[in-house]
Amino acid sequence: MFGFLFKRTERAAPQPAVAPQAALRAEAKQVSDQARQQALQQAQALSDEAAALAFILQSTFADARLAAAQLVQSPPALEQVLQACRNTDRRVAKLMQARLDSVRQQQAIAGKAAACIAQAQRLQQERQLMPNQVAELDRSWEGKDVPSDLQQQFTQLRAALAERLSAQAVLQHDAIGLLNQVRAMHLQAKTGLTDTSPAALDVLEAQMASCVSHSEALTLPRHLASDFAQEAQALRKLLQDLQQHQAALQARNELLSNWEAATDTLQPEALKSAWSALPRLPAALLDDGLEQRYQGLLKQHAPVIPQKTRPEATAAESGERPPIAEALDGLEKALEDGALQHAVDFDKALRAMDFKQHKPSATQAGRLAQARSELTRLQGWARWGGNVSREELTKAALELPAQELAPAELAKKIGSLRARWKSLDVSSGSAPKALWEGFDAACTAAYAPVAAHFQQQAEQRQANQVNARALIDEVQQYAQSALATDAAGAAPDWKIIAQFCQQKQQAWKTLGPINRSEKKSLDSAFTAALQSLQGPLAEQQAIEVGRREKLITEAAQLPANQRDTADRVKELQARWQEQAKALPLPRQEEQELWLRFRSACDAIFAQRKEAASSADAERRDNLRLREEQCAALEAAVAEPAAGLAKILQQAQQDWNRGGQVPRAAEAQIDARFQAAVAAAQAILEQSRRQAALAQADALRGKLALCQKIETAIAASGANESRSESDWRGEWQALPALAPAFEKIIAARFERAVQNGSGYAARLEAGRPLLQQELLRAEIMAGCDSPPALSRERLQLQVEVLQASLKAGGAAKNIEQQLLHICDLPAVMDDAALLRLLKLVALAKA
């Protein structure tokens, strides 16, 4: 305990200085900051990517690497820096990764833009450019973030394509207009409404030749040029016939005019003979108007012959043929509305009329001719549009095999294409044979995978039907063998039978589709075969249900407060599991029984849990008390050491008297209390060490004072160097010792101060006894003695041993021996004093 008395000089020695280490650290930090600033300056002074790359790979400063990384732009350099800094510099790695992603995105955008440009160039080279191809190109193009050179190139190509489409539209409009003009001229020449010259036809033919020779002529409707040529040829022939027979027409017109002026003197026979005598005209030049005028004159001057009136027939005839005005109005209205099919119906009705009986007027004839011309134009447009749509349908059918569609979707699309083709036949007329054959061949080729798929499905249904019959046979054979085994007396394995039934039911569900004509009979056969097994199985399962009910009853009757209840519940659960494994019940019934059994077991455990809840509450209260005890002890650390010992003793007693706490918090609260006890004991130990240190200092001082007085007495024979008051003042200045040592040392001090007669001689005479008692104390303490006293120590050890054997339990201990030494009147030198203090330290330890 007093071992540190001999280390006072070491404790008082100055501690090693830490200032040099702090200075070194400060200097190192300064050097590092300077190097970092220098690296930043070097990074900012870089001018090219290669130098920046080399700097990043060798630099050790993150900020400098980040500054140099701003110059890295090329993908190879970005990849190299990313690989080097991926695990060392997250900021540089993140920057490089972001730039690489941006470069890759730009490359992807540029690649897509280049593909669009290549597609635009291919379209530019196409001889027949379709609008849907340009529309698909526009859908593929994304102008966002595209490089400017590619954007400019695509813009130029797109403008060229737009010019071609515009030229196609203008060309088609001009060509169709020329066709309509030549048809109108032909109609006017037939009706004689206007004079048509061959020069005008030559101009139209020259314009059509220009259209046919145009670079975009392939986009014109295929029949347009041939229709124009036919119309122009017919018109030119008509004009030639008109020039040749113009005189005959003029004669007919003049003759009719004269007859109409002199109607009173005309006879039908004379009219017929005069009209027959006129030169005959070609069928193309026959004018319905002249013929109608002639027939009107004949009817006007024909003799009246009495006839029986047939009002019913007249009414019937008038009901069969609608008036011309009504049909003509309907035709014009249908043409105005764009209802081509209705217009065709009205035109058929007009053609079915007998114009000899229902003669149209000149105005109606003009309207009819104009309406039929418009109808012809619309039919031409419809045929052209229908053929264009049919070409699109053919192209769509040709593209279907490349789309890799599912068979059902492919069949649906092919059916949709054929339905649209049929609708075009209604609205645009029948298609050319070559176009229809191409469309039909494309649809047939596209439908080949669908036909193969349907054929495969049919084969699969047939195979499923064979598998179904085999499954039924297997169930029947198994039922026969199971029943035969049961009849022989061996108990069947109901678990295997139940599993077999379940497996076969699952197998039947996964067979796949079967032909509808066979499915119902196969289902009935399978149900009947399976029922031969499920009937006995159901009876056995009913017995098993009774056993489960018994287990549920036993579980419900178990007392909750007995100690073996938990074991009995586990036993019931084990029996339940054994029975469930032996024969499983239907899932729903099994689930219901299990829920009832589990509810009974849960009720028992709930009652036990409720009974244990009070114990849990008591443990929680104990835990709260222990936490309060820990908090009080932790707060008592700040109390004085004199009262802390009592607080610690009382806290330990209260802790030992405390009850149990929850197991989860037991270790934690024990550790907290032990930590608080350790902290209090550390404070008490420190207080004892300080007290021991003070006692050691006081003992040293008082022994030294006694040694000083006794040495002075032994040297001069009287204590005359200093007065008694001085010695006593110095004694009073020293702190008090423990009671035992204080009494002995104080008595020795009084004897030295009083210096009675012969005291100096007694001090000198007691020196050998002091040495002997010190040796005896060292032997008792088991510590070393000075080497010069080894012989005396050996002799004294024998005496000490003999004395201890004789005294037994009454032998002196080390503390009594030390008190005896302190009480001896003997001069004590420095060596003896050190030996005595060492023995005191060992005794207190």
Give an overview in words.
The protein has 845 residues and is mainly alpha-helical. Among the domains are: 464-585; 614-684, no CATH class; 690-844, no CATH class. It has 32 helices and no strands. Helix 15 (324-337) runs parallel beside helix 17. The longest helix is centred in the middle third of the chain and has 55 residues, at 433-487. Mean pLDDT is 77; it is low at 1-19 and 305-322.
Task: Describe the structure using short key phrases.
32 helices; single chain; mainly alpha
Question: How would the blueprint of this fold be written?
Answer:
Layout (H helix, E strand, L loop, with lengths): L7 H5 L6 H27 L3 H10 L3 H8 L5 H11 L4 H36 L5 H10 L7 H44 L6 H15 L11 H21 L1 H16 L6 H10 L10 H14 L9 H10 L3 H14 L2 H13 L9 H38 L7 H22 L4 H55 L6 H16 L6 H42 L7 H18 L4 H50 L4 H17 L5 H54 L7 H10 L5 H16 L4 H7 L1 H15 L8 H18 L6 H10 L6 H15 L1
The percent range for helix content is over 70%
User: Which residues form runs of ≥5 with pLDDT under 50?
Assistant: 1-19, 305-322
**Whole-number mean pLDDT:** 77
Report the portion of residues in β strands: under 5%
Would you tell me the structural class of the helices and strands?
mainly alpha
The count of helical stretches stands at 32
Give the strand tally. 0
Q: Between the first and last Cα atoms, what is the distance in angstroms?
A: 4 Å
